[in-house]
């Protein structure tokens, strides 16, 4: 009797994968985490509608994540929220990112010198994500909690990062960037945004003139990595009434210097 031949190669995975080579269940679970982080908290039904996944499936994902403490459930409010393990995972990113580590004392000094709130943000697609802030004691001030996202085209930090990008990378990003109007001052045309980016690149700092929030302004500069590419941005923000006249140029000079200092301390290289 002939011995049956053993099949060659690796056995098929028990997990169903999509055509893109990703695991559908994991894709969905990560989508739930991202949505909860964005919403801060949400009910099962609302979350299910938001991410377009059946309620039963969403609930199974949530209970699995809850078992690993990545999400938590508030019985009284019947709402789900990000859990302690998700925070620890994010904290690990902050610990390994030298820009964030070395940026903290520079931000504190920038806040003290300028009298305005200092911010640190990193790019993510066509948005920037705020990862650090040192608030001014001034009672009227800007505030962006860690994790806050904003569109690059309507952000001082975002525009500074765009202006520091190499032409090919910038062009590819602008093609995917929706120029959403947030205020009457927001750039809604590519020509207007491009003209502003050229001016930013020439002087070394950006100026957001109420382009995201009415009554609030921001001045930012890009922080570069070891390849001379923008990897983060630092800025000061506050009421537009305090961002006027010659003070704008003084703030621009201080922010640009802070960005250069963080670039150097984190091992970055000038463009």
Automatic annotation (TrEMBL):
Using the record's annotation, list all stretches that form the HTH iclR-type domain. Answer: 23-84
Which Pfam family, giving just one, matches this sequence?
IclR_C
GO molecular function term, any single one: DNA binding
**Segment Disordered: which positions?**
1-21
According to the UniProt entry, which residue ranges have a biased composition of type Basic residues?
1-13
A single GO BP term for this record reads:
negative regulation of DNA-templated transcription
What region holds the IclR-ED domain? Answer: 85-268
Q: Which UniProt keywords apply?
A: DNA-binding, Transcription, Transcription regulation
Name of the protein: HTH-type transcriptional repressor AllR
């Amino acid at each position: 009797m002939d011995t049956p031949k053993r099949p060659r190669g690796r056995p098929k995975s028990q997990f169903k994968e999509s055509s893109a080579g990703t695991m559908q269940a994991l894709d969905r679970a990560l989508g739930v985490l991202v949505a909860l982080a964005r919403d801060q908290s949400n009910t099962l039904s609302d979350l299910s509608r938001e991410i377009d996944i059946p309620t039963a499936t969403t609930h199974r994902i949530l209970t699995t994540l809850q078992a690993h403490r990545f999400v938590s459930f508030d019985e009284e409010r019947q709402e789900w929220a990000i859990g302690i393990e998700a925070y620890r995972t994010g904290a690990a990113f902050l610990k390994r990112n030298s820009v964030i580590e070395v940026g903290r004392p520079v931000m504190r000094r920038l806040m003290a010198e300028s009298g305005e709130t200092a911010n640190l943000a990193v790019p993510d697609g066509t948005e920037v994500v705020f990862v650090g802030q040192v608030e001014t004691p001034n009672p009227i001030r800007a505030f962006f909690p860690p994790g806050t996202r904003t569109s690059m085209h309507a952000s001082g930090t975002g525009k500074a990062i765009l202006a520091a990008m190499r032409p090919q990378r910038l062009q590819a990003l602008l093609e995917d960037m929706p120029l959403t109007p947030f205020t009457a001052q927001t750039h809604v045309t590519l020509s207007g945004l491009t003209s502003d980016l050229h001016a930013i690149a020439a002087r070394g700092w950006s100026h957001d003139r109420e382009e995201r929030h009415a009554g609030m302004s921001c001045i930012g500069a890009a922080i570069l990595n070891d390849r001379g590419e923008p990897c983060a941005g630092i800025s000061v923000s506050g009421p537009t009434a305090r961002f006027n006249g010659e003070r704008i140029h003084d703030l621009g000079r201080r922010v640009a210097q802070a960005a250069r200092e963080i670039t150097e301390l984190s091992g970055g290289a000038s463009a």
